[in-house]
Amino acid sequence: MDWLEDMIDRLFARRSSLDQSLLLYLFIGVLAVAFATLITVSICVSWERLILMPDAQDSHFWEYLSWVPSKKSLLSIRILEFIRHYAVFVYGFLGIYFATTVFYRKRILQPITILEKSIEQIEQGNYQQPIYYNTYDEFEKTSAGLDHLRVTLQENQKKLHELYHDQKKVNAAFSHDLRTPLATIQNNLELMEAYFEQDRLSPETFDKAAGKIKNSINRLTSFSETMQQLQKLEDRPLHKTALPLNQIEEHLLELRQHRPEKDLQIIKEYPKITASYDSDLINEVIENLLNNAYRFAKNTITITITLQEKLLIIYVKDDGSGFSKKELLTATEPYYSQNKNSHFGLGLTIAEALSQKHGGNLKIANSIDGGAIVSAVFALND
C-alpha cells in the first residue's frame, strides 16, 4: 500500500480539511476496490473459460465480465464463481479498512502525537520548542493556537523573571540604604542611654542625638514613600490617544521657560504626523530626565526628538562630567549614588519603568564630546 500513501501525500499537497481528506481517502479506496474487483473478475472468468473451453477464441473485456458458465458440477468452477461474486465485498472491506487506517495514521495520529509532546514540554516549563504542523486542516489551527499559548507563556515567564530581577535590585538597594539610618538611630539611642545611666545627659547632647534620630526617621519615611511610588508605577495604566507628535515639543518649550538658568536646545527630526501615545507618561519621563540633566549640566542641555519607523526616541544630552563606569551600570537603580554629591534619586528609575511600560526602554551613555546622554524609546501606534 506504499504506492497508495505516496499518491495520497501528493494529492494532499493542497489545502484540505479533515472531512475533505476523509472523503478523498475513501474515494481512492473505492477506486482501488473497483480496480482490484475488475482484475479479479477478469482472472476468474479467464480460468473458468480456460477450464470449460480450452480452445475458445479471445473475447472482448466486457464479455469476460458478463460471462456465465454452464451448469457443470466442477468444484474449481464453483470456487472461481464464488470468488468472482464475493470479491467485491472482501475488497470493499479491505479498501475501507486501509483507507481509514492511512487517514487515521496520517491525519489524526500524527498531529495528536505532536500536540501531546508539545503539551508535555509546556507542562515541564520548556517554552523554547515551537509547535508547527502545516496541513491546512483543523489540527493546524489547533497547533497554531497552542503555539500562541506557548509564546504567551514564554513572554509572561520572561516578564516575571524581569520583574523578579528588578524587585531583587530594588530590595538590595533599599536594604543597603536602610542600614545607615537604622545604625544612626541605634547608636544615638545607645549613647543617650549610656549618658542617662551615668547622669551625664546634658540638654545639648540630648538635642544633638535626638536631631540625628529625627533625620534618620525622616529618611526611613522617604524610603517608604519611594516604595509606594514604585508600586504605583507598576499599577499605572497606559492611556494612548491619537495626538499630534509636536505636542511633545510644545511641552518642552514650556519647561524651558520655567528653567532659564541653563540653555535648553531642542532639535526635532520627525515629520508632522499624528500618532497614538500616552502624552502624560512621555512628558513625565522627559521631566525626570531633564531634572537630572539640569543637576549635572554646566551650561547647555540638548534634547533631540527623532522618529524611526514606529519608535519615538528622545535623546537628552548635557555638557557635564558624564557617567562613571559604575554609574553606567547602576544609575537606574532606585536611590543609587556613587557618592553623596551625585545622587540620581528616582528620576532615572521612574523614567526607565515608564519607558518600558510604553513598549520601549531607557539607555544611558557618555558622549564622545563629553557629557552624559540618556535616550528614552517609546512605541507608537499610527
From TrEMBL:
It is found in: Cell membrane. Gene3D superfamilies: 1.10.287.130, 6.10.340.10, Histidine kinase-like ATPase, C-terminal domain (3.30.565.10). It holds the Pfam family HATPase_c. Keywords: ATP-binding, Cell membrane, Kinase, Membrane, Nucleotide-binding, Phosphoprotein, Transferase, Transmembrane, Transmembrane helix, Two-component regulatory system. Its main location: membrane. It catalyses: ATP + protein L-histidine = ADP + protein N-phospho-L-histidine. PANTHER family: SENSOR HISTIDINE KINASE CPXA. Residues 173-382 form the Histidine kinase domain. The chain crosses the membrane at residues 21-43, 83-104. This is histidine kinase. One of its GO terms (molecular function) is kinase activity. It is a multi-pass membrane protein. Residues 106-158 form the HAMP domain. Its EC number is 2.7.13.3.
